[in-house]
Amino acid sequence: MSHHCHATDCRVSTPPEMFMCRRHWFSLPKPMRDEIWRTYRPGQCDDWQISKAYSEAAKAAVRFIAAKEGREPDVSVYEMLEP
Ligand SMILES: [Zn+2]
User: What is the CA(82)–ligand 1 centre distance, in A?
Assistant: First the structure.
């Protein structure tokens, strides 16, 4: 499965271990980036098992970018995967 940036409506391809494309990733505040790395588990993109903490961190980041870009944030994938 191809992997792309998790920002809403962004279709830039990224390596699976990268949460967002460079541009979006570096527009997140540092504490948000740290929180995503802290809660990320290698392999979660393959088995779709994410932690509640990761889901919260990811949703916060997606909402942050969407608000900045004036979009409706799409966090449905996290709501679907949330344990
Ligand atoms: Zn992006």
Answer: 22
